[in-house]
């Protein structure tokens, strides 16, 4: 087998050149259940919030809750993404995890916030978040435990459920067996930054008004370590256009999650 950064099943070796043209780098995320410092990358926990900063709320006055926080100084460099600063993802902890399916780009019941300069000193940070209160009985987050994020640089080809798959491979005809091998061996499950997304249903970007969100900002898939799960075996994705990412403009992020 030809040496490559991506391992292919034998049935797909003859398509290697075409498949390798689609390869993208990404940052694989693995979780470790533990408490973290306020400025560290993490799932859940207390956010990085400097004294004087406003805590994010939905338009109905409800406090949003920290879903995830990424400190870019902790991840391997990846093209188009920042090399410093903190990116935070907040959601409303309701039965839809803050997603409005009719308006998935309107940041009301979810929020994506970028903080370019990070101060690693608790003296300058809010440490008491008791004002948030306990969640009501019917309100909950998609994880049970706060988790540390561990990162590694990996590579992947386009998965079959990406809305661009058929256009990319318009001249490649797979047999039923090859199609099954591609779906099974080259899927995009797992939590990551960058690369390609995974869906249990369908790619929401397969529409003219959303297909400019070409870059996967963050994907959170089921993880046993922190009991992370969206719905019934679901996965969440946040998308952005590469142009907006390079400008550090996170105001038009697309949020999506689906489940079995």
Automatic annotation (TrEMBL):
Pfam families: DUF1963. It comes from the Bacteria. This is DUF1963 domain-containing protein.
């Amino acid at each position: 087998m030809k040496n490559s950064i991506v391992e292919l099943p034998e049935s797909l070796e003859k398509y290697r050149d075409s498949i390798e043209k689609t390869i993208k780098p990404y940052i694989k995320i693995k979780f470790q259940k533990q408490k973290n410092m306020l400025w560290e990358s993490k799932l859940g926990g207390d956010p990085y919030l400097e004294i004087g900063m406003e805590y994010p709320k939905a338009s109905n006055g409800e406090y949003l809750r920290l879903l995830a926080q990424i400190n870019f100084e902790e991840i391997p460099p990846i093209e188009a993404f920042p090399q410093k600063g903190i990116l935070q993802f907040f959601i409303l902890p309701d039965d839809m995890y803050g997603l409005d399916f009719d308006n998935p780009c309107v940041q009301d019941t979810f929020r994506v916030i970028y903080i370019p300069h990070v101060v690693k000193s608790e003296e300058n940070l809010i440490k008491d978040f008791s004002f948030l209160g306990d969640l009501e009985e019917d309100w909950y987050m998609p994880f049970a435990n706060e988790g540390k994020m561990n990162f590694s640089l990996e590579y992947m080809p386009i998965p079959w459920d990406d809305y661009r798959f058929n256009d990319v491979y318009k001249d490649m005809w797979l047999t039923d067996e090859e199609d099954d091998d591609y779906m099974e061996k080259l899927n995009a499950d797992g939590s990551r930054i960058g690369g390609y997304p995974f869906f249990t249903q369908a790619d929401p970007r397969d529409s003219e008004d959303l297909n400019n969100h070409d870059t996967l900002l963050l994907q959170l898939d089921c993880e046993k370590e922190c009991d992370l799960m969206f719905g019934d075996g679901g996965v969440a994705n946040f998308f952005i256009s590469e142009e907006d990412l390079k400008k550090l403009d996170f105001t038009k992020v697309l949020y999506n999650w689906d489940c079995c």
